[in-house]
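Margin note: ligand = 2-(3,6-dihydroxyphenyl)acetic acid.
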Amino acid sequence: MTQTKGLSGLTQAATTSGTTPGYMPGFGNDFETEALPGALPQGMNSPQRVNYGLYAEQLSGTAFTDERPERTWCYRIRPSVKHSARYARAELPLWKTAPHIPEDVISLGQYRWDPLPHGDVGLTWLTGMRTMTTAGDVNTQTGMASHIYLVTDSMVDSYFYSADSELLVVPQEGRLRFCTELGVIDLAPQEIAILPRGLVYRVEVLDGPARGFVCENYGQKFELPGRGPIGANCMANPRDFKAPVAAFEDREVPSTLTIKWCGQFHETQIAQSPLDIVAWHGNYAPMKYDLKTYCPVGAVLFDHPDPSIFTVLTAPSSHPGTANIDFVLFRERWLVSENTFRPPWYHKNVMSELMGNIYGQYDAKPQGFVPGGMSLHNMMLPHGPDREAFEAATTSNLGPAKLENTMSFMFETRFPQHLTEFAANEAPLQDDYIDCWTSLEKKFDGTAGEK
Ligand SMILES: O=C(O)Cc1cc(O)ccc1O
Ligand SMILES: [Fe+2]
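Resulting structure:
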């Protein structure tokens, strides 16, 4: 029997591009959703017998005793323990996990890559994941990895979950469908998705080939940053984050489930689709967010604020204010500062900064940092605008100016990032990147006048 049901109870073809998934708004909300009427128990979590003969199962994303527990109660056709037969080691050699510090790779430096090209071989979400950097240590649940995915093929009767991490997905090209245990999310460039640790899903290609960036967060979950004196509005607003409505498959076909666990991959064979949750309630769920709804706040008279002003999501570390990861967005905005050097200032930072270009041109690097490309300015390594950006910024007339056609982001972490062998040797690294600063001229001549 093959069926996928949505909230309305109507049979939907959730595996085809024609269907529009349903969503519920609100970051961190306590949601409830059922794909069949009456499937969700009311007033309690564990009735003696659940309607429709479903099994109750809790998915805990935090310790039970966390100050703000995140968990979801699932009502499913089979408990997921039934989804795990014996595990066998699987190899995904290009998906690396921290600590991974290759001996012959130098991570000290300023690095920039052209977009990874698509090849001739078909790739899925799993085989198409290429790790560029790793930071921290998965065994202590700290740090992150950055990846680029190249996906041409849908996963067929194949499912995945990461016990190691939450995944933040930033598409740059193509459209993907994430069919998850808790519902369906469609994702296009200029949107992001968060896939929680432990959630089972399959990824289908709606419009390929697809390329994008992934931040794999080994630590505490991403949350909305406190806005401080900015108040209750602007930046990312909770209601623009959307969780999917329940959708399930009752499909008995031989299937493979791959699990990422402490950096290793294991497979198990199961006899059915594991996407068999008919109803759920809770606050631990996948979400999508449209980056065009991000409302940037900035300097309205003079100077250039720290990029933390553009934080969309932050994954805290044990040290308040020092994130395991900040996800920062540089999007279209007005520049109005008077008597100000408007692009990012030159700087060194204890945090390490990995950037990706989603589309357009980034103000500090008018050339060379192209859509699909990535750059890394690692811990305490100097960087800033290239010569062209410096000259333009110091000579242009400072009327109100709109930065248009621009969307880049940063994964900023408190941990140094280590390049993988793939990033150092196989990815299209720009050997001449640091030359973008060599032509910066000495302007100093001992006199105080403007240069
Ligand atoms: O290095 C970069 O381009 C990112 C960045 C942007 C900014 O506006 C201020 C600081 C910073 O690190
Ligand atoms: Fe920077």
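The longest strand covers residues 201-217.
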